Amino acid sequence: MAVEIVKVKEIDDGMRLNRWFMKYYPKLSLGHLQKLLRTKQIKVDGKKAETSLKLAAGAEVRIPPLHLDEAEAPKQNRISKKDADFVLSMVIYKDNNILVLNKPSGIAVQGGTNTGFHIDGLLDALKFEAGEKPKLVHRIDKNTSGILVLARNRKYADLLTRAFRGHDLQKTYLALVRGCPPQMSGVIKAPLEKIGEKVMVAEGGKPAVTEYDVLETVGDRFALVEVRPLTGRTHQIRAHMEYLGMPIAGDDKYFGKERVRLSGVGDKLHLHAYKIDLSCLYNKKMVVSAPLPEHFRESLNNLGINFKE
Questions:
Q1: Taking each helix axis from N to C terminus, what angle separates 30-38 and 17-24, rounded to the nearest 10 degrees?
Q2: Which of 87, 128, 220, 286 has most Cβ atoms within 10 angstroms of its Cβ?
């Protein structure tokens, strides 16, 4: 195989380089692509490029010999019926432009070290009539359950990406916390910084703002809290709840020394992405909500909290 110079088509103008390779070279893994870019074997208009580079129509992409096994089916197409049924069961909303999933706790959105099973690897099962798999436009933590929005075409991938970055889509979470906040509602303004394995409140950290309302309490032992992050920092809600002295039940990272199994409360993280307001995309009232997972619902019942979904 020889080196190829491929011109970017008009239809792909503005597409990120990694997505362009996913479209035309689906058997090329992201790791292999990054290595080729790092070693300058892939260039755009003769210059070193990053996966996030936005391509312009007419740009010339240098493609070295990729040594792909053409006989092997692309990995993303080898999804078992069991796994396909599993991800299809998560769909709670679908139209021509977006899908909304109710992701279970314990399932990662994307792969990583020691993470072979994830939503990103199941997207081929969500093509439906579109003919192309949907695109991830945001993430939630592996152990957080609830709403995950997918774009079904490039136009809405761009719209949703901008909307999430601009915090134009209000997201509402439910959290079952240990303890009770000093006020029934409030705003947490505390900068966050990653320190070691945790994200913590730290002077000089990135600005982070979270609104909360207490929906119900069990004495001073537990509270069901509605939480709205106004910024999008990693682990923001979990870190802010710990900062208030009311860590989320089942949190194995932000529960301090008190991290023990709680009587009547399940051992999974009780943080659920409950609602998202998509009205700005549809020019009309459009709110999608995700039913609580079984472990969350059961814990509320055991504590005598009557939450109507």
A1: 130
A2: 87
CA–CA separation, 308 vs 33, rounded Å? 48
pTM exceeds 0.70: yes
Asked whether residue 73 is domain-assigned, the answer is no
Q: How many domains does the chain have?
A: 3
Q: 223-247: per-residue pLDDT in tens?
A: 999 999 999 999 999 999 999 989 9
Residue 210 included in any domain: yes
DSSP H helices, the chain, are 17-24, 30-38, 81-88, 154-165, 236-243, 279-282, 294-303
Residues 55 and 88 in one domain: no
Q: Are residues 95 and 192 in the same domain?
A: no
DSSP-derived 3-state class of residue 164: helix
Pair of tokens at residue 15: 């597409």
Domain extent for 269: 171-303
Same domain, 193 and 254: yes
**Residues with catalytic roles:** 141
- DSSP character string of 135-147: EE-----TT-EEE
* pLDDT tens sequence across 126-172: 998 877 899 999 999 999 999 999 999 989 999 999 999 888 999 99
Q: Is pLDDT of 78 > 90?
A: no
Is 198 a member of any domain? yes
Is residue 69 assigned to a domain? no
Phi/psi for 143 (5° steps) reads -90, 0
